[in-house]
Design a protein that fits this description.
This protein is of the alpha+beta class. It is 21% helix and 32% strand. The chain is built from 5 helices and 10 strands. The radius of gyration is 17 Å and the shape is globular. The relative contact order is 0.21. The mean pLDDT is 92. Belongs to the UPF0301 (AlgH) family. One of its GO terms (cellular component) is cytosol.
Length: 186
């Protein structure tokens, strides 16, 4: 994973004109990218009308200390499966460290810990994920559909989903207002 060719621990930003409308203004936290494929959690959009309290109610977990944070659209793969991208100060039975930058958990123990006030100090909850088979993301990166950026904790935890894409672009030195969906002819 230390190969600079791979994007684990970075953010993948959809460029205007992305052919798949599910990824319009997408910000994807890349949790794994290697020769076998890639997995990321979308953090650029929230699921309207669904908050953490609704999710906890469905799982029969008392809200406790958990704020009613928005639930993000993590991606089109397994949209009913939950994931928590969180600070590395907490680890559960399936938590995976991501390039020393954050952790990813996908079991209910992280939600129980958050509700008890004993979970990670910083977190974002999402349903679904974005996945690419072997070589698929690498092929997509050869076209102008994606931009990868390093990003930071402010982008991950302190920027609301509606502002995250523009903030990531600006942080990368790109003025999002100057981007267009198509190319012209000369």
């Amino acid at each position: 994973m230390d190969d600079p060719h791979y994007l684990t621990g970075q953010f993948l930003l959809a460029m205007p004109g992305m052919s798949d409308p599910r990824f319009d203004r997408a910000v994807i936290a890349m949790c794994s990218h290697d020769a076998d494929g890639a997995v990321g959690i979308g953090l650029g959009a929230v699921i309207a009308g669904l908050g953490l309290h609704d999710l906890l109610d469905q799982l029969e977990i008392a809200h406790g200390a958990a704020p009613n944070a928005p639930i993000h659209f993590g991606g089109p793969v397994e949209p009913r499966r939950g994931f928590v991208v969180h600070s590395a100060d907490w680890g559960g039975q399936d938590s995976i460290a991501v390039a020393g930058r954050w952790a990813l958990s996908g079991t209910v123990d992280v939600l129980r810990a958050i509700a008890k006030g004993a979970g990670p100090t910083r977190w974002v909850v999402a349903l679904g994920y974005a996945g690419w088979d072997q070589g698929q993301l690498d092929a997509e990166l050869a076209t102008p559909g994606w931009l990868n950026v390093v990003g930071d904790d402010v982008l991950l935890y302190d920027t609301d989903a509606a502002s995250r894409w523009a903030a990531a672009m600006t942080g990368a030195g790109v003025d999002p207002q100057l981007l267009v969906a198509g190319a012209g002819n000369a």
